[in-house]
Write a structure and sequence with these properties.
The structure holds 3 protein chains of 3 kinds. Chain B is an alpha/beta fold. Chain B contains 10 helices and 9 strands. Chains A and C meet through strand 2, strand 3, strand 4 and helix 1 of A and strand 1, strand 2, helix 4 and strand 4 of C.
Amino acid sequence: MADTTVGKTDTTVAKTDTAGRAAPTVWRAHGTARRSTHTLRLRVSAALVAVTALAVLLVPPLVQLDQQTVDLAAKLLPPSWAHPFGTDDVGRDLLLRCVYGLRVSLLVGVVAALTATVIGTAVGAAAGALGGWADRLIMRLVDTLSSVPHLLLGIFIIAMFRPGVWPVVVSVALTHWLSTARIVRAEVLSLRSRPYIDAAVSGGASRWRVTVRHLLPGVLPQAGLAAVLMVPHAMWHESALSFLGLGLPAHTASLGTLIQGARGSLLAGQWWPTLFPGLFLIIPTLAIAGLAGVWRERINPRRRSELML
Amino acid sequence: MLELHAITAGYDRRAPVVRDASLTVTPGEAVGLLGPSGCGKSTLARVAALLHRPASGTVVLDGTSVRHYRHRAPRAQRTAVGVVFQQPRLSADPRLRLSDLIAEPLRATGRRASAPARVAELADTVGLTPDLLTRRPHEVSDGQLQRACLARALVLRPRWLICDEMTAMLDASTTAALVRVVEDYRTATGAGLLAVGHDQTLLDRWCDRTVHWDTVTSAARKTPA
Amino acid sequence: MTERPPAPVPAPAETGAVTAPPPAPAAGAAKTEPAKTEAAKTEAAKTGAAKTGAAMTEAAKTEAAKTEAVKAGPATALPAPPAGAGAAGRAPVLSVRGLSVRFLLPGGRRIAAVTDAHFDVAPGECLALIGESGCGKSVLASALLGLLPANAQTAGSAHLGDLDLLTAGERTLARTVRGRRIGLIPQSPAAHLTPVRTIRSQTEETVAQLTGERNRSALRTAAEQAARRAEFPLDHLDRHPHELSGGLAQRAATALALIGDAPLLLADEPTTGLDRDLVDRTVDELRRHVDADRALLIITHDLAAAERVADRVAVMYAGRIVELSEADAFFGAPGPRHPYSRGLLEALPDRSFTPIPGLPPELGDLPDGCAFAPRCDRATGLCATLPPVTGPVACHHPVPAPARTPEDVRA
């Protein structure tokens, strides 16, 4: 990798030796290979996320078809030109159902992840910045909640509401802020012992100002990363709840309800009602996770100083 | 007067790093505290800067006995002491431009309006160009960053300066330049200085008197580095 | 040792062939690397010119070419160090010619971190590369180890024996160079050691990696031997890095660096943050490992440490090596000749403690001429052009050379 000679303009007259002759400097690049795979992953993930976003944002307003249109004459048709993903057991177009389902799942995922991150960041930052008994109390609570299985807790929360989108969001959000709180607290604790916090205290900054100006900005990249990584997790969680029949009502298309509704036909050899919603769940979540991975490398402080000053 | 009486301090109650240390700096005086690395002198410097609560002992700052440390210390007391640490990379918030870094204490104490003029003045004093002021810490060298950290310590015009190994990472010329900035400031304001370090030649040249760690603490022999 | 470096005593002719670097601009003709004999040294001192690799005049080249057959004479005519004198007839361990490193930044900015560096490190010699932080010293070290980030470009050559470190692939560097032919002594040993493993397990692992030894008891013996060489106390081998004092952590790191028996030890700021006694002990220990076959390149901003350990000193300013000099002459009489080096020495607290006025230039925006001119009291209009490197100093107005060189006094 080390011996690629770069660019014609890079041969510059850079020096003069003692005899007064000018000699060209031949520059070699290093480590180009690593960068290109990096970019490839970034591009593929970004493209997939963009397609997903466009689909869920543009298809419903632009395509004037009703996803709920029942056509019993066309039930369980395999994929064809008219129905690229086939139809379900009451003849609804699966492509349209999948797009609408993805829309609901993404909505649940994004809102739940954001809510969980906000709660987690606030709790974690409070624990880390306050320290002492407040920290111990908060973290004990977090530990207790973590010891209850996610899904169980989620079901418990859902059971308190009437079925719908928002109970699912609340259930997913309330079960997912714990890890963020831990990450943020650890990060705050490590930042808090840095001399620059000492310098801020010595410069007269209040506790609030130190937390808001110096500690929180330091953990935001981590928290943001946690939020992005949580979107796929929340989507899966929603699907799991819906699959169990506890999440969204069956007539609301979400990826979870679609897969759940297709269980029967899978046994009858009809694969498309399961496969396509499954792919719609897997591919966007992988793409989001891929973007998050690139982001993680970006915020890695070692990468920041490429100058090595 | 900056008086430290029988200070015992550390991070673990059973094994304090500083035992029974006493030291006095009179106004306008420059005292060098000399000791090997890891002996606890940085901890003592943090106590003197009201950044670390000692397990026992008293700090008397300008006649007032210090009761609270860090955030709980009254703001006027905290800001009467300016500190510069050893590692500029760790003492600068990586997200702030150098001009914001220097202005931060002014903003934190509600003197936002005076910031631009004061920053420009201090940048000139410590030898930072306007171009450098717009950069973030990872875009400047250690020496340049330490100049900014010194400017930040001076921005509130403290009556006391604590330089904890301020020049340990720096080359000879930057060391001499920063020491000159500190000395010019002290000449102009009469501020007292506690310079902590391990370089006897430097401290002897810089300070009015140099005290060795062993003479400051009675327990240096009990706490090996 | 599976991959031992080539025997350090190649025939002069062979050396000439392999170390003449194709793109090295300052030395167009194929040349023989200096073989350091007392005779050669005197010769170099007499001609008074051509002390650095970069500094070769045409005259000196011809002169050298003529005398070379008889005396194994020095083409680059670096004044031989005292220790190097014992290693007569040796090719340099490391030979750097026209080494430049630049970083490409987004937006087309270019940072010239190192520009046109020329120097040799002879066996048995310690060369100290000094300069202020951000002058490009550490980048130079990273370039030698092939550890530059992806946005870096290099030019020139850096020959370690017959291998050009700058064009060698990552596999070669990882498998045959790092640890085996260059031992790296890191800036902060405590951070360099793995915190969760004992010194013994890390030493044994390094031995296993470098020698291919798998036998447990042999590994144990080898690890203890390595510790003994660096004077690391054997009863501390089972401790974790955080249980060691700064000095012992430094010795542990040195022990690891010495395992590969590398002909070149590269110490990048090994004394940062250590107190004076520890600095002295550390550099003395490094010095002990420089022997007939091995050389030490120490990169530091600590002039006192450099004075203590170095045979020769290379001063770097704004990415260029501006002066290459005998350590005795540099730190003692007659002193450095480049105004920057003078200023740096004068800034020491035991000298006049006066800083050099101004700031070093930005490496992304270097002037066309001498980079030091804006801060220099000797600068004239001439300094708007790049100083030609004649002799050991890259300056238009160096402090005049003394009539008698210290070599004469010593010899």
